[in-house]
Specification:
The complex is a heterodimer of chains A (302) and B (186).
Chain A: H1 4-35, H2 51-72, H3 89-105, H4 138-141, H5 145-179, H6 200-225, H7 236-267, H8 279-298
Chain B: H1 2-15, H2 18-24, E1 29-42, E2 47-52, E3 56-62, E4 65-73, H3 82-91, E5 99-107, E6 114-124, E7 127-141, E8 144-151, E9 164-165, E10 168-169, E11 176-185
Antiparallel strand pairs in B: 1-2, 1-3, 1-11, 3-4, 4-5, 5-6, 6-7, 7-8, 8-11, 9-10
Classes of the chains: A mainly alpha (302), B alpha+beta (186).
Chain lengths: 302, 186
């Protein structure tokens, strides 16, 4: 009897004290615990789910509310805010406070005009879901400007490669056509030499060939020098595109070398002989590989 | 008799602050068990789809409303061509703004099998855009709910310059198919 009366008094006093600030404390503490839920854990599994933690929460509320209010009066500089999801408490509580006031000003969902839907600011009565609570690694969530710059450079270089590659096809085609006028007068069978004829056709062919090779080398440069991030897996088309470069690449070097030899021989009035005789065949193979490389990448993927 | 009664009333008072918390702020919620997002991009010659199964999401309910958030790393979308994927990431500034974040709020009463329309806020490429009244279909799978629909994304909504090659430009419309399996999380 004697023990119960002071005990009831103490409990009543504690309860009254809790009533004064406890509910406010709930408003501050409960969202904080929810936001601070470890990644991957259900967001609704807050501490208020068990009786023990309920009591702990209630009696911790006044002190918690006081310290949280005191903390919120401090200025928080943006660059001091935590970036990772492990400590989003400062942001969360400030947001919750602003939401509480905003939520009070908003009518309930059922009373809102359906023709004027609200912004998705999630400032309703329901707890807000934070990106940090989804458990993505911070390395994934955080952007990487350096990586973006690398990708920008890669795209820029590959786009130049594409455009130059297509443009190179123009002088390449012109060179092939001009090749028909580069042979000069026909040398009789059995003869080793004959009239050199006009050099105009050969010169035009040589100039166009030089332009083609120059543009081709520039095209190849942009493909080779474009940054290639790790883990890039090539498609079958791109594999073919790259494999064909092992044919038209050497061909683009060999063809002008052989062409220069043939040019010199023909200008001397000689029949084209030796390895220079392969100029035409090498050029044809190079042209075929180049066109195939263009087509495998440009084909529709429908 | 008096003493036990006063003890009981004291105990009642002691637990009174708990009551609002227990009755009002015991939020139910939803957890994304499985999510598939598929974008469709096309131009005059190509039609390509990119799929991400790395989406994570959560829904928290309280006061008759639920807030949902679904997010997926931009880099998780795969179209079967890593070169194209890298170009996509570059074009949408996905390395710098690495997440696509989708938010919506729904009245709790609307979350049941059937069809619903929701305002969807999409944060993508450093820009935010809201799509109004996007239709979705909700089907029950046991206790879970599967939500399917298509977000009518447009590149211009996110200030993304459509990639182009010579005279061929990617279409502005990039619809994103959404297939989300939500589990109740209590």
């Amino acid at each position: 009897m004697n023990v119960a009366r002071p005990l009831s008094f103490v409990i009543t006093a504690a309860a009254t004290l809790c009533l004064a600030v406890g509910i406010q404390g709930q408003a501050l503490i409960a969202p904080q615990r929810q936001i601070a839920t470890p990644a991957g854990a259900p967001a609704t599994a807050d501490l208020a789910s068990s009786p023990q933690s309920l009591i702990a929460t209630v009696f911790a509320a006044p002190a918690g509310a006081f310290w949280e209010k005191a903390r919120l009066t401090r200025p928080i500089f943006l660059n001091q805010l935590p970036l990772s999801a492990s400590r989003p408490i400062d942001i969360g509580i400030r947001r919750e406070l602003s939401q509480n006031s905003a939520a009070a000003a908003r009518p309930p969902a059922s009373q809102r005009d359906a023709t004027h839907p609200p912004d998705i600011s999630q400032q309703n009565g329901a707890p807000q879901v934070s990106l940090g609570s989804l458990g993505f690694p911070s390395s994934v969530v955080k952007g990487n400007a350096r990586e973006q710059a690398l990708l920008d450079r890669r795209t820029r270089m590959l786009q130049i490669h594409q455009k130059l590659g297509l443009l190179t096809a123009i002088p390449l085609a012109a060179t092939v056509i001009a090749g028909g006028f580069a042979k000069g007068p026909r040398i009789p069978r059995g003869a080793t030499s004959g009239p050199a004829g006009s050099t105009t056709g050969r010169n035009v062919h040589a100039v166009l060939g030089t332009v083609t090779v120059g543009m081709y080398l520039a095209t190849a440069y942009y493909a080779i020098r474009a940054p290639r991030p790790r883990g890039v897996r090539l498609t079958k088309a791109t594999k073919w595109h790259e494999a064909l470069a092992w044919i038209h690449g050497p061909g683009m070097i060999l063809t002008p070398v052989l062409g220069a030899m043939a040019y010199a021989q023909r200008n001397r009035g000689e029949r084209v002989h030796g390895i220079a005789r392969a100029h035409g065949q090498v050029a044809a193979i190079t042209l075929g590989a180049y066109v195939a490389a263009l087509l495998v990448e440009a084909r529709p993927h429908l | 008799m008096n003493t036990p009664m006063s003890l009981v009333s004291a105990l009642f008072l002691a637990f009174l602050p708990v009551l609002p918390a227990a009755t009002q702020s015991s939020p139910s919620g939803w957890a994304l068990a499985q999510g598939t997002l598929t974008y469709h991009v096309s131009d005059a010659l190509h039609a390509v789809s990119g799929v991400s199964t790395a989406a994570r999401g959560k829904g928290l309910c309280g006061s008759g409303e639920c807030n949902f958030l679904v997010a997926a790393p931009v880099q998780s979308f795969q179209s079967g061509d890593t070169n194209r994927d890298l170009h996509m990431i570059q074009a949408v500034h996905g390395a710098q703004n690495s997440m696509v974040v989708v938010r919506t709020e729904l009245p709790e009463s609307k979350i049941h099998p059937g069809s619903l329309r929701a305002d969807i806020q999409v944060q993508f490429g450093g820009q935010t855009h809201i799509y109004r009244a996007v239709p979705f279909t909700v089907t029950a799978e046991g206790k879970d709910l599967r939500l399917t629909g298509t977000l009518p994304l447009r590149l211009s909504d996110f200030s993304i310059k459509p990639p182009q090659f010579l005279f061929i430009t990617v279409k502005n419309s990039v619809p994103v198919d959404v297939d989300l399996l939500w589990q109740p999380a209590l």
